[in-house]
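User: I've been trying to design a sequence by hand for this structure and keep getting stuck. Would you show me what you'd pick, starting by listing the structure so we're on the same page?

Assistant: Good idea, let's start from the same input. This is the structure you sent:
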């Protein structure tokens, strides 16, 4: 026999379903088991004039766990929303230096609104921001070609921006093929380049990497690596290479290259093959997608010349201190490069920094395990590659 309170709630729910114009089968029979938090939620739904169809309510029901909503859960959701409702305000800076090399083969790009830059109307209020670092080898032809062509290829892909991950992957491969064709017409271009790009759309961050450039995110002062270095010491890459008929000799791919993924290098025999056969040097990027929150402070993108002398956490710590001092992203990039040269970097150095806030990073004390400093940043990364497999 139903209690008076159950009958009362049954009457209330009948009124709600009539108001919404729905046939809410099965709901009334379990009303007595619902918690007060669920009742408050449904009353709120009643007041929402936009709920005019079963499909809309079904979508909202899926968003809520009907068996577990309580006042504590609502409070937790509010706390969660403080992070997830964050809208980043982007500021970017960049700096590069020839370092200890005779030639500058690094290059970079920062585009605040990718679609607008190429005259594409996305019918969206949110711009798509694009950042990239290109570390050339064997000349600057490949790095400059990819810098100049890849952004447009991404925008013109049929999947942009709704299928962003697929669009970026296809664009890397298409740009690599286009460079091969250009090299066949102009031999002076022959060279290769590693590529790392970061695309920001609203709160979504997509990092695509082919090579040993690296992107590191600062989350409340903690370094989060958004990419993995594609080097011969990585066991996962080694297995992929050997499955395709390649080999690692003295730490080099086929005894020639210090990276296992790159665009270009079509002139190197046995590295890339056309047709059905796939060579061991891949232009396919490794992707990582993340939703930014208020705790995410900035992103550092650097060529391997930076990471030869900085660990990921060390770079984040250094950048945070500088931004706390002057909050100038371009000056911070300059200081990172200068510090790298002081530490004995011998390669070209390029860094792009993208801040997600107008304010400098907050001061914080982060407890971390002590790390012995008897190993170089490069040595530490090589060890990490072996351990990760």
């Amino acid at each position: 026999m139903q209690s008076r309170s159950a009958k009362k709630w049954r009457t209330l729910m009948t009124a709600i379903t009539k108001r919404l114009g729905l046939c809410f089968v099965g709901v009334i029979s379990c009303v007595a088991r619902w918690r007060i938090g669920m009742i408050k939620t449904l009353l709120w739904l009643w007041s929402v004039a936009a709920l005019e169809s079963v499909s809309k309510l079904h979508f909202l029901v899926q968003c809520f766990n009907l068996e577990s909503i309580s006042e504590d859960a609502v409070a937790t959701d509010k706390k969660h929303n403080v992070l997830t409702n964050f809208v980043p305000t982007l500021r970017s800076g960049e700096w590069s230096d020839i370092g200890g090399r005779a030639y500058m083969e690094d290059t970079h790009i920062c585009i605040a609104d990718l679609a607008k830059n190429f005259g594409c109307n996305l019918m969206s209020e949110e711009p798509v921001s694009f950042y990239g670092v290109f570390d050339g080898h064997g000349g600057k032809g490949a790095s400059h070609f990819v810098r100049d062509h890849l952004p447009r290829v991404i925008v013109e892909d049929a999947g942009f921006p709704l299928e962003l991950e697929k669009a970026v992957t296809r664009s890397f491969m298409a740009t690599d093929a286009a460079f091969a064709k250009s090299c066949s017409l102009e031999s002076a271009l022959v060279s290769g380049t590693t590529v790392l790009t970061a695309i920001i759309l609203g709160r979504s961050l997509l990092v695509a990497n082919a090579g040993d450039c690296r992107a590191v995110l600062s989350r409340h002062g903690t370094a989060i690596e958004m990419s993995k270095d594609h080097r011969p010491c990585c066991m996962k890459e080694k297995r992929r290479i050997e499955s395709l008929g390649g080999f690692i000799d003295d730490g080099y791919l086929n005894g020639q290259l210090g990276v296992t993924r790159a665009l270009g290098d079509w002139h190197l025999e046995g590295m890339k093959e056309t047709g059905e056969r796939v060579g061991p040097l891949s232009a396919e990027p490794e992707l990582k997608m993340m939703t930014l929150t208020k705790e995410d402070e900035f992103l550092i993108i650097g060529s391997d010349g930076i990471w030869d002398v900085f660990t990921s956490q060390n770079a984040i710590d250094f950048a945070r201190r500088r931004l706390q001092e002057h909050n100038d992203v371009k000056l911070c990039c300059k200081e990172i490069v200068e510090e790298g040269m002081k530490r004995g970097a011998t390669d070209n150095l390029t860094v792009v920094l993208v801040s997600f806030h107008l304010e400098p990073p907050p001061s914080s004390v982060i407890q971390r395990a002590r790390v012995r400093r008897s190993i170089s940043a490069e040595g530490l990364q090589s060890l990490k590659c072996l351990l990760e497999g």
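That's my pick for every position. To get oriented when you compare it with your attempt: The CA atoms of residues 37 and 70 lie 4 Å apart. The chain has a mean pLDDT of 83.
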